[in-house]
Amino acid sequence: MRIKKIKRSRIIKCVLVFCLFCFANISQAAPSISAVNGTISHGNSVMISGIEFGTKTTALPNLWDTVENQYSGLSNDAKIPVGSDYPWEGNIYNATKYNSIRSEQRGKSSANYHSSGGVNAMSTHYVPGANYLYISWWWKADANVFVSDQLPCSFDDSTDSITVANHEYVEDNPVMFFAGGELPVNINPGDTYYVKNPTADTFQIYAPWTDKATFSFGSNGIGTNYVATRNHSSKFLRVSDHSDIVNKTFSWTQQQAYVYDNPNVFGNVWRENNPAINVWHFFEAIFDSVNRTYTLLVDGVAMYDVIDWAGADLVFNEIWAIGWHTGGVYSPTLVKTWMDDIYVDNTPSRVVIGNAPTYSTCNHLEVQPATAWNSNGQSITISLNQGSFPDGSTAYLYVVDSDGTANETGHPITFGNSGSEDAIAPAVPSGLAVN
After folding, report:
1. What average pLDDT does the structure give for the chain?
2. Which residues touch 154 (CB under 8 Å, ≥6 apart)?
3. Which terminus of the chain faces fewer neighbouring Cβ atoms within 10 Å, N or C?
4. How far apart are CA 226 and CA 175, in angstroms?
5. What residue spans in the chain does CATH classification 2.60.40.10 cover?
6. DSSP structure class, residue 70
7. Local confidence band at 419 (pLDDT 50, 70, 90 cut-offs)
8. CATH topology for 31-57+348-422?
9. Is the CATH code 2.60.120.200 the one for domain 63-142+233-345?
């Protein structure tokens, strides 16, 4: 009898441990959507029901700027007004205009920010309480923004090299160098880099902000003292610490991303950022000022994935510039750009729709501004943003919680449907036996 009691006691303990394990995992589960109620059409109020949505203290985002929802009475090509009555304090060089030409709109939009050449950037928007900062926007250009020097070369073997001369304009900035299929290489001023792909017939070089960078090539290279002539450093995005927007800042340029905490640079990563021309692209920027990381995505793909900028003493809580802020000696001045649907918030919590049944495979995302977020984490009301999804098409709904976790499997919705769209019940299991 004693043996049976011991066995029974052990069984009870195992069951309790198993239940506690299951409960712990359930409490940390990802969001799950069970139903959607409302007419699935642009601008309509739609309620999402489910579990594990988490909490969002303020349901509305810090900013939802669709352009047409911020300005009234503006005619096409009017200068964008700024100031306390508007979402932005600045319009850099007054270059950004209100564009209502129908053929230049994206999906359901009726207006966007536009510039016929050069700068197209709105500036100065403060985001209080932003230890976490999420920004997304749509952007398009009609020409290549990644302009570099490309020259023929005749490297014969791995003894050939390229050297960057030390110059006052480049002494604090490494130069990015491409040779054929080689990855970008940072060459610090005064350093020598030995070519790993000697069969390449072209190379590209970048020296930010200057036409003063001089390069020398070893043995069988094209010669010495070549001067870079097509370099620039133009920004898609600049965010700052509100306390010092110039000396505590972040830049996402056409060639790199970095955090600048004067006089030091952190999290500096070189990468060609050149979205396909004449196509709208969805940009996302995520800043975690507690863990000191940033992530940058284009069309759902991480271009810079959780880049560490530990060591910098700042909090990103102000957008200095967003769009296309040209800079440097040879910035492309004739590029036309468009920008639309700017979403800003100080929390990861948000709702999006995507074009794929799993979140990780979506390459078309449309953010959905919430109007109500129940504190029990079981319902959210959104103002449906159809974006550029066509009428009658199917999209997939995702909720991102306060930890940045989304339901991996999307809840399907069809534009034009009304009423309730419940989750599809799983098939009844078969082939089970009870012993």
Report:
1. 82
2. 201, 220, 221, 222
3. C
4. 14
5. 31-57+348-422
6. T
7. low
8. Immunoglobulin-like (2.60.40)
9. yes
